[in-house]
Amino acid sequence: MVRAAGGVVARRGACGQAEVLLIYRTRGRDDWSFPKGKVKAGETDERCALREVREETSLSCELGIELPSVSYRDRRGRRKIVRYWMMRVIDGEAAPRREVQAVRWVDVRSALMLLTYSHDRELLAMTASPAMAAASDT
Questions:
Q1: Domain ranges of the chain
Q2: Which of 46, 57, 62, 78 has the fewest CB within 10 Å, making it most exposed?
Q3: What pLDDT does 30 receive?
Q4: Residue 84 and residue 67 in contact, taking contact as beta carbons nearer than 8 Å
Q5: What's the predicted TM-score (pTM) here?
C-alpha cells in the first residue's frame, strides 16, 4: 500500500466565488489533479501534505479541516490511499515546480470539469461547502 497526502487549496477569487488550485502534469500522466505526494519515512501525513503542496505549487499553506481520504490503484497496480486537507495560502504566489508543468486557480464548477480523475471530482463535490468556507477566510 502507498500512503500519500495532499491539499485542496482554496481562496476567494476576484469575482467573489470560491476557487481551488489544480496542478497539471505531463510526464507520463497528462492529468489535472490536486497537489499531493508520497509520505516519506518518519513523516506525518500532515507534514507531507504541506510539503507536497509547497514543492508542487510554491505556496506555503496552513491546514484546515481534514477531508475524506481517497483510495485507488496507482499506475503500478498498488493500492494508494491519499489523505487530504483543506488548505489556505499563508505565503507565496502559485507557480509550477518539480514535476508540475502548470497550476491554475479555477472556480469549483470549472474544476469539476477539468479534473482528470473521478476520485478527485468526487472529493471536490463532497467538499464544495468546505471549499467555500475556506475561501471566505482568505
A1: 2-129
A2: 78
A3: 85
A4: yes
A5: 0.89
CATH superfamily of 2-129: Nucleoside Triphosphate Pyrophosphohydrolase (3.90.79.10)
Nine-digit cell at 73?
490503484
Cα 72 → chain centroid: 16
CA 18 to chain CA mean position, Å = 15
The two beta strands, 102-107 and 18-25, are antiparallel
Task: Show the 3-state SS of 28-52.
Answer: CCCEEECCEEECCCCCCHHHHHHHH
**Least confident segment among 14-18, 54-58, 94-98, 133-137:** 133-137
Question: Which of 35, 30, 38, 5 lies closest to 20 in space, CA to CA?
Answer: 35
Q: How far apart are CA 61 and CA 26, in angstroms?
A: 25
Identify any residues that bridge with 109 across adjacent strands, giving them in sequence order: none
Q: What is the pLDDT of residue 129?
A: 66
